[in-house]
Amino acid sequence: MVYAVVRAGGRQEKVEVGTIVVLDRIKADKNGNVELAPVLLVDGDKITHDAAALAKVTVTAEVVGDLRGPKIVIQKFKNKTGYKKRQGHRQELTRIKITSIK
After folding, report:
1. Contact at 8 Å (CB) between 88 and 59?
2. Which helix (H) or strand (E) holds 52?
3. Is 58 helix (H, G, I), strand (E, B) or coil?
4. Which of 73, 96, 95, 99 is nearest to 86 (CA)?
C-alpha cells in the first residue's frame, strides 16, 4: 500500500492514488493538474520522511472542480449600546483527485 501525507492549503492530508480531497482554492496549470508537496511517504514497509529523499517524490493531482463551502454567519452584539453587526462568509474551495505518487 502506497500513500503520502502532503501539505495542502495550510493543512496536511493523507492521500492515496484515486483519493478525492477538498482543499482551499488552488490554481491549476493549463492541463488542470496540480503538484503537491509531500511531507511523508509510505511505500509498503519503507517510510520516507527525509527532506532530500522527498524532494525526488512528486504527488500529482487533477482538478475535478471549484466549489464554495457552507455559509457561516458571524454576529456581533453589545448589550445596551445598540451595536449589532452581521457578516457572512463562504470559503472558496477546490476538489482534486490524486492521479499519481512517484
Report:
1. no
2. helix 51-54
3. coil
4. 73
Q: Where are the domains of the chain?
A: 2-101
In angstroms, the Cα distances linking 82 to 49, 73, 77, 87, 92 are 56, 19, 8, 17, 33
Angle at 57 between CA 54 and CA 63, to 5 degrees: 125
Rounded to two decimals, what is the model's pTM?
0.86
38 contacts 59 by C-beta, under 8 angstroms: yes
pLDDT tens sequence across 86-95:
999 999 999 9
Q: Report the alpha-carbon distance of residue 99 to residue 79 in Å, rounded.
A: 54
Q: Which three cell numbers stand for residue 16?
A: 492515496
Interatomic CA distance for residues 40 and 96, integer angstroms: 19
Instruction: Report the distance separating Cα 94 and Cα 86, nearest Å.
Output: 27
Cα angle at 52 between 46 and 55, to 5 degrees?
90
Task: Say which residues have a Cβ less than 8 Å from residue 50's Cβ, sequence separation at least 6.
Answer: none
Overall residue count recorded for the chain in this entry: 102
